[in-house]
Write a structure and sequence with these properties.
Methyltransferase, Cobalt-precorrin-4 Transmethylase, Domain 2; 4 domains; 21 strands; alpha/beta; about 20% strand
Length: about 475
Amino acid sequence: MTTAVPTHTENPVTQRKGYVYIIGAGPGDPELLTLKGERVLREADVILYDDLVSSELIERFHALKIYTGKRKDSHHFEQDEINEEIVRHALQGKKVARLKGGDPFVFGRGGEEIEVLRNNGIGYEIIPGITAAHGASAYTEIPLTMRKISSSVAFCTGHPINKIQVPDADTLVYYMVASSVHDVLDAVEKKGWKEDTKVAIVQNATRYNQKIFTGTLGELRKREKAVYSPALLILGANINQFIENNWYSKKKKVLITGDNEMMFNSEEYISVPFPCHRVDGADREKVNQCFQNIGDYSVLLFPNRFAVNYFFRYFHEYGKDVRYLGNNKIYTSSPAACAELLKYGVIADLHLEAECSSDILSILQEKGIKNENILLPCSNIKDDYLVNGLMSLHNMVTPLSVYYQGAQEQGETIDLDFIDEIYFSSPICVRNFKSFYPSIPDKIKVTTPDQNTEGEYRKLFMEKA
C-alpha cells in the first residue's frame, strides 16, 4: 500500500479569532444580571470589568479577570487601552467578556468598543443590562412614567457642564451628577422649570447602601450637600410620597462574613458579603500527592463552595477530570457547595444541611458514617473540631489545603451605617473583620453559629482593653 505524498507544503494553522461579548452588569445589585449575561460570563476565558461592577458579582466567575475601572480623574485604564486589551485577547482566540455597569449602550461607551471590533474583524454580541435609571426607579418607587402625570422621560448626563441638555420631557433623569448636581439644577431652572418641581438624588442605586435625598428644585439648589458617585438625579411630578419609606429601605441588611453560605436574601433581609478568603496558598506538594492517590479515599467531603472551586481548579490543572472520581463518594455540607459541584457535572452522593461543624458530625453519626478514608478539601486553617470529630467516629481524615483563608486587601469598604446585622461564620472571620473595623456600632446585631465564634467575637469586640 502506497502513501500519497503532498505536492505542497501545508501552512501552519492560522489562529482562529475569538469572540467578544459586551455585557451590561446592571446598576449594582448582582442579582439584576441577566440569565444570558451570567451564562456567558461562566463560559468566558477573560473578563474585563469596570469600576461599578461589584466584587460580589465578579467573584462568581473563574475566568482571567482584568480590572479596567474608570472614574473621573482616576482612570486605571484609558478607553483606548481598554479597546486594545479587548482586541489583544480576542486575537488570541479567546472568548472575551467586556462587563460594564448598567447597560452598555446607555452612557456606557459600548458603541465605541464595537466600532473597534468591527475595524479588527472580530465577532461580537451585545447583552443588555438594566440601566441605572430603571434600577433607581424600581428601588426607590419613583415611576419614570405615570398615567396623567408623566408620559415622557429623557435620559441625560451631567457632563460636560457647559453643554448640559434640558430636553422637553415630563421626567428628566441625569446620570453622573456627583460633581455637577448644582450645575444641572441651575440649567433646569434656567430652562423654565418651576422651583417647586420635585427632585430626588439617588446614590448607589440598588446597592445595600442606597441613599436618597429629596426636595424641590429650589431647595436642592440652595442645599450644600455632598453627593458621592455613583449618583443619579431625577426631576418630575411623579416623585411620590412613598420614596422615603420604599420597599427596599424596609429590608434589613445583613453582613455575611467568610465562606458560610447562609444567605439572608428574602422578603425581610438582604445579604451583604464580606469574604475572608484568598485564592492562593494551596499546599501544592500535598495536592499533587492526594491527586495521584485519589482512589485511596472512599469519601471526599466538601464543606463549602470555595473548597469545591479550588479543588477542581487544581484537579483540572493536573490533567484530571470527574472520571477519576468514579470510586469516591462525594459529600457536601452546604447548599452552595452542592450547587458548585453541579458546575463540574457532579451530583453529591450525600448532602448535609448543616450550619456548623457540630451539625455535620451529628448528621454523619446518625447515618452511621464510620471506617471511611475521608479527604477534606479546605483552607489552610483546618477545622480541628471537625477533623477530630470525624476521627472519633473511627474515620481516617486527610485535610487538604486548596486555598488560603486569611485577611485580604478589602476591595470595597463596607459602610457599617447601613448594616443592621453581622453574621460571623468562624473565629478567623471575626479576627479578619477586626483588622478592618476596630469596633462595631451598638445598633448592629451580631450572630454566630457556635460557641467558639461567639467567644472570639466577645473577646475582640466586647471585652475592654
